[in-house]
Amino acid sequence: MKTVECDILIKNIGQLLTIPSKNGPVINTNRESLGIIENAYVSIEDGKIKDIGRGSKEIAAKKIIDAEDCIALPGFIDPHTHLIFSGTREKEFSMRIRGKDYLTIMQEGGGIKSTVKATRLASKEELFSVSAKRLDTALSWGTTTCEVKSGYGLSTADEIKMLEVASLLQRNHTVSIAPTFLGAHEVPEEFNGNKRGYVDLIIHEMIPEISKRKLARFCDVFCEKEVFNRKETEKILNEGLKHGFHAKIHTDEFYNIGGTELAEKVNAVSCDHLICTNDKGLSSMKKAGSIAVLLPGTNLFLMKKEIPPVDKMRELTVPIAIGSDFNPGSSPIIAMPVIMSLSCLLYGLTPEEAIVGATINAAYAIKEEGVIGSLEEGKLADIVIIDSKNYEEIPYWFAQNRIVYVIKGGRVVAGKKKFQTTED
Ligand code: NIG
Ligand code: FE
User: Fold this and answer.
1) Is 325 close to ligand 1, i.e. is its CB under 6 Å away?
2) Measured from the CB, is residue 112 less than 6 Å from ligand 1?
């Protein structure tokens, strides 16, 4: 009787993208960055990658997955979502199509505020149920880890409610969750004309309470004209830092009000959107080691022609990740392969940059680079197998789900195929 050497063996992988991460986030991305092994195998034990190699090594395994010459790469990491919310905003979609813009709708009481109303009315159970279904969809498209923001509660109790839903999802859903506190997403109606009062509430009540309950790892602010200005953003993020949160900033989406220039001051893990970022902001990000999280789904849905200064990011070697920004207003897209296509088509990212952006650089954007984002010995076995021969097909087959297996922590959890089992 042969001894079983691993739990799962994935064999006959046509192109294995390992995307090595040893030297920090990937910059100057090219084909080399993908760490391709042709005709490869991966063995998995205790949910982790045990061995990776070329050829068809004979390893006795409890389960064998025949990849039939397909591509295998790290599970996708979505580093920016507003996954948890109640209600829909298709009326605003129609308004925007007819010419009204996002910020005007927001100022007239729609936008984020309308989702806040619906989310406040929803119970934890309802929010859990809708969000878990959304995560099922994300998983079927290869997302194995997802950052999730609060920000539709905007009162201490409702922000906590949202983050408790995030924690329930973390415990009960296959997809791993990275929770972010975004109390500074908008000023709620009860604080109309008293933004200072709301900032005080965030600083003196929300941040300490959420930190005490260990409900979030990151603190984020929507730093934008008519929302939170640079000073308020800095104050909130500094308080977050004091309470153990890492800083993230929604910034330069509509107007450049200097949000990105805060990166250095608050040691921002990531700055997100960056449509109208300037050199000063990018230099600050570079110094802080921030990841640029680009969100092309939002460009598409807001029909914005302006795009982030990707060439400048490359020149200054600011690492780029991509995210869905999944939310009911500006980006109802949750499928990372669709976001990868859009990052190429709308922003001019290369297929290699899109793949790196949805894996290892996204892992850096949520400070999980030691565990996920690349396929290396000892890392979590979060792997997607895609029915394609060449990695360039991933962004090319626009909006077509060609995923045959999604493997999370060494278990097949989604995909179209059943796996063979060989018991020795
Ligand atoms: O990242 N810009 C701010 N927040 C979200 C949109 C949220 C919403 O419209 O509900 C974003 O695009
Ligand atoms: Fe967002």
Assistant:
1) yes
2) yes
pTM of the model: 0.96
Total count of domains within the chain: 2
Domain harbouring 233, CATH code: 3.20.20.140
Distance from the alpha carbon of residue 272 to the mean position of ligand 2, in angstroms: 8
How far lies 321's CA from each of 29, 135, 192, 237, 310, in Å?
A: 11, 20, 35, 21, 11
Q: Do 170 and 43 fall into the same domain?
A: no
Spatial CB neighbours of 36, under 8 Å, sequence gap ≥ 6? 15, 16, 17, 18, 391
* Same domain? 61 vs 178: no
**Which residue has the least CA distance to atom 3 on ligand 1?**
222
Cβ-proximal residues to 185 (8 Å cutoff; 6+ apart), any chain: 112, 149, 150, 151, 152, 154, 220, 222
Output the tens digit of pLDDT for each of the chain's 424 residues: 445 688 999 999 999 999 998 789 999 999 999 999 999 999 999 999 999 999 877 788 899 999 999 999 999 999 999 999 999 999 999 999 999 999 899 888 889 999 999 999 999 999 999 999 999 999 999 999 999 999 999 999 999 999 999 999 999 999 999 999 999 999 999 999 999 999 999 999 999 999 999 999 999 999 999 999 999 999 999 999 999 999 999 999 999 999 999 999 999 999 999 999 999 999 999 999 999 999 999 999 999 999 999 999 999 999 999 999 999 999 999 999 999 999 999 999 999 999 999 999 999 999 999 999 999 999 999 999 999 999 999 999 999 999 999 999 999 999 987 555 454 3
The alpha-helical segments, DSSP class H, found in 26-144 are 90-97, 102-107, 112-121, 124-140
Claim to verify: residue 200 and residue 109 sit in the same structural domain:
yes
Which domain does 107 fall in, by range? 77-365
Judge if 194 and 85 occupy the same domain.
yes
The rounded Å distance from CA 186 to ligand 1 centre is: 10
In ligand 1, the atom with minimum distance to the C-alpha of 85 is 10
Q: Verify that 61 and 109 share a domain, yes or no.
A: no
